[in-house]
Design a protein that fits this description.
mainly alpha; single chain
Length: 134
Amino acid sequence: MKATIYSLWIVGIFVMGAGIVYGFVTNFNEWAGFPALLATAAMCFMLAVYFMLVLRSTKALLPEDDLEGEIAQAAGDYGHFSPWSWWPLLIGGACTILVLGLAIDWWIVGLAVPVAIVGVLGLVYEYSTGEHAH
């Protein structure tokens, strides 16, 4: 986790510097790249601070933090995933419609909302009924 924290700090500082330079080069007239670069830096900093707080509270080092660690140390259970689920495809379709609506016209975004709601509800309640209910 320490390597991840350091990497996020380095990337955040670089992107923030690149965003400031980009702003000066474009005389702060271009309102897509400059805020996007600063937002990317802010997200890197937020993740770095979050991981620092998690590391401080848990005191747990990941296998990649051990300089003499083996690959086998990273083996184990990483959670439960549904290999047969079709709901992520529906959520991806809703995201596609949403981005299309942002690019073309705002009324198309309204078409994405019900598709996203159905996809998220289906994914959340996938194991509540049927053959695989818990």
